[in-house]
Amino acid sequence: MSEIDLSGQSAVVTGAGRGIGRAHALALAERGASVVVNDIGAGIDGAGTERAPANEVVAEIERRGGRAQPSFDDVSTPEGGEALVGAAIDAFGKIDVLVHNAGVVLAGPFADQPIDDVRKVLDVHLMGAWHAGQPAWRDMATRGYGRIVLTTSGAIFGHPMVGAYAAAKHGIIGLTKSMHQEAALTGLDIKVNALAPIGATRMAREAQKERFGDLMDPSLVAAVCTYLASPDCDLSGEAVHAGGSHWCRIFLAQTRGWASGTPDVTPEEIRDHEDEAFELFDFEIPASTNDSTDLIHERATGTKVRMARDQIASAEVEAKLD
């Protein structure tokens, strides 16, 4: 079985000064990538700055014989994202891999959390993916190749007191799928996936550390990230959960549901068929927004429309490639 080799590749990892981001940076460098270690050195609440964490990771990579450069650019701003990617291109000539791991957590009840806290969380997690991802994508597109790993979270399933965090992480999945579809339409070999990690970090609770023990080591999650960031990975548009020696697929699906079969439906019929609408025995995973709406159309009318749409999409892609 061949080993994953990132020799000659340039990678950017945000939030790489500590925890899971640090593990990602070390793992990518171990496989031969030149790494820009990005971290402003803030606390988990986003307050403060410190250059030591990023510098220490760079020094560790260099001690191991790798190439690395620190970055203290703030990805919560468009200027920070542009500067970060520019630093990678200046240092290593290109960017092949972007891992957006930077994050902050500001907890509070939905009714009372200050809007500035909400915006800070969204700016780092979701907009950070945009701010760093957009210039990285442009450079990748010039060569038709790239790998992007955006960090999501199990918080997408809901968690009290961190609504902004959960919303940002759900947004990451929508962005991941949209970027994947855009790459496919334009024929680019840019794979984009979302990774929901579990690891013993500053953001992990003590109870989780006690529960998982050694399986909480961030290096185990970094193995999944390294695969997703490699040329060996053909997955794209996916969300995966990883922790310990385990990883799995997270997916959005639609049940078969219930349809009246007529142009009319009443609230009473909706109420009376709730169990059928939510039954899990039969479901599909839509490949896109169009696939999702076509699925509803098919089940409401009994008319197949997805095959025709697939044929149109294929023709559009071939026309773009020509």
Which fold does the CATH topology of the largest domain refer to? Rossmann fold
CATH architecture of the largest domain: 3-Layer(aba) Sandwich
* Fraction in helix: 40-55%
Radius of gyration: 21 Å
**Strand order within the widest beta sheet:** 3-2-1-4-5-6-7-8
Q: What fraction of residues sit in β-strands?
A: 15-25%
Principal-axis shape = globular
The structural class is alpha/beta
- Please name the fourth-level CATH homologous superfamily of the largest domain: NAD(P)-binding Rossmann-like Domain
Which H/E pattern describes the elements?
Answer: EHEHEHEHEHEHHEEEHHEHH
How many separate domains make up the residues?
2
First-to-last CA distance: 37 Å
Biggest sheet features: 8 strands, mixed
Low-confidence segments, given as residue ranges, are none
CATH class descriptor of the largest domain: Alpha Beta
What's the layout of helices and strands?
Elements: E1 10-14, H1 19-30, E2 34-38, H2 52-63, E3 68-71, H3 78-92, E4 97-100, H4 115-143, E5 145-151, H5 163-186, E6 189-198, H6 206-212, H7 218-228, E7 239-243, E8 246-250, E9 254-255, H8 267-272, H9 274-278, E10 283-284, H10 289-301, H11 306-321
Parallel strand pairs: 1-2, 1-4, 2-3, 4-5, 5-6, 6-7
Antiparallel strand pairs: 7-8, 9-10
Helix pairs in contact: 1-2, 1-7, 3-4, 4-5
Could you explain the architecture of this structure?
This protein has helices at 19-30, 52-63, 78-92, 115-143, 163-186, 206-212, 218-228, 267-272, 274-278, 289-301, 306-321; strands spanning 10-14, 34-38, 68-71, 97-100, 145-151, 189-198, 239-243, 246-250, 254-255, 283-284. The chain has 322 residues and is α/β, with parallel strands linked by helices. It folds into 2 domains: 10-250, NAD(P)-binding Rossmann-like Domain (Rossmann fold), CATH 3.40.50.720; 254-321. It has an 8-stranded mixed beta sheet, sandwiched between helices. Strand 7 (239-243) and strand 8 (246-250) form a beta hairpin. The radius of gyration is 21 Å and the shape is globular. The two termini are 37 Å apart.
